[in-house]
Amino acid sequence: MNDSIIKRLMSLLSVKSIVTIALTGVFAFLSVKGTVGQDFMTIYAVIIAFYFGIQSAGEKKGE
What is the pTM assigned to this prediction? Predict the structure, then answer.
């Protein structure tokens, strides 16, 4: 069980995960502030779709 937790934490330290978490934080901040622009929404949606698409493809490949 402990090894599983360590592996999950290490996977969070990948560059794509850090970028996704940072962008989500910025998105949350801008949403609360009420100044989310259309350009940011487009970029955010593309990056999130790419991240979860890659993650989903990796899980299907591992089955």
Answer: 0.63
